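2024-03-11 09:14:02 DEBUG pipeline.ingest accepted 1 chain
2024-03-11 09:14:02 DEBUG pipeline.ingest length=375
2024-03-11 09:14:03 DEBUG pipeline.predict start
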Amino acid sequence: MSRRVLVGLAIVVVATALFFGIRARRDFVDLEVYRTAAIRALHAEPLYRPDDGHYQFKYWPAFAVAMAPLAFVSAETAKWLWFVGSIVLLGYFLTHAIRVLPDRRATERWLVWWTLAVTAKFIVKELVNGQTNVLLGLLALSAGMSLARRRPILAGLAVGIAAFVKPYGLLLVPWLAVAAGIPAMAAAAATIVAGLCLPASLYGLDGNLSLLHDWYSTVTTTTAPNLLNAENISFATMWAKWIGAGPSATALTWLTAACSLVVAGAVCWRRRSVGHPEYLESGLLVLLMPVLSPQGWDYVLIAAVPAFVCLLDRLRQMGPAWRGVTVVGFALTSLTIFDLLGRALYMRAMAASVMSVGAILLIAALAHLRWRRLA
């Protein structure tokens, strides 16, 4: 039997075991949110309901319409289809992110294994919850690669779709203005406007406007209750956990967010110093998303695979100090695992927001790569 067949069989066995392991844990809870929203959308029913509790639908209305195919199959069939699709998309995302990395220094095999090592925690959470962060990351990477190939309209289209997969995909829009100008911005704006108008075909104009109002109300009213959640790694959560929620924490959150955006701006300002700036920039912006959003969950970091690949590939070119910063950043974000640390140590680590600190270190390391013209 050939090696390729053996690898394929091994993947099938592992994927099957993982599927049933997921069923014993959280059983695709976010997928059920999408499917419920899709059913409601097809019947023009309200999408945003406080009585849904922690699992309220928080995406733009167009996302519920896009999930309509899930409404036509049973819950069990939807889980199988979603899981298989997630595995395929995840495999493509990981391998594609490595293959399109400009001026790659390390071998593909080395990068595959180490990328899997630093993202294993996020991969499991992505699959367990039935999430869409891999799609977000792939769209951001596609936007960067489209810009590198001088296809600004395709880049704008990818960014526009990303905003509906996760609303904080909007963070990519200012980058488009800097990197590609009017054509890309026009494509992104047209995509976003079309998506915002799409639910009107089911709800009517007034109903669609009500949905958008309800979305805003849902997002803003659920931020405070989720602020101290153990899996929240946002700057807002970090400061609230360190000094307590209040005006001081809010002010420091805004200051930290502003500093991070200044860093991102400096990275883009140095884009002419390297040959292929888009890859690092798109990865950096995705890495910023969960720390800038007040409801930024740790598993969103799976979308930042290109950032991780870039850091791993350039690790040997860094000086000892920055290599240490990067390794610590990876350790804080990737090794804070409940099963590894145990309940007591894990809860202390989450209370100290070590994952937020780790993300900050990785952001700084990416900025260092650009400043040294290494990526």
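2024-03-11 09:14:41 DEBUG pipeline.report The chain has a mean pLDDT of 90.
2024-03-11 09:14:41 DEBUG pipeline.predict end
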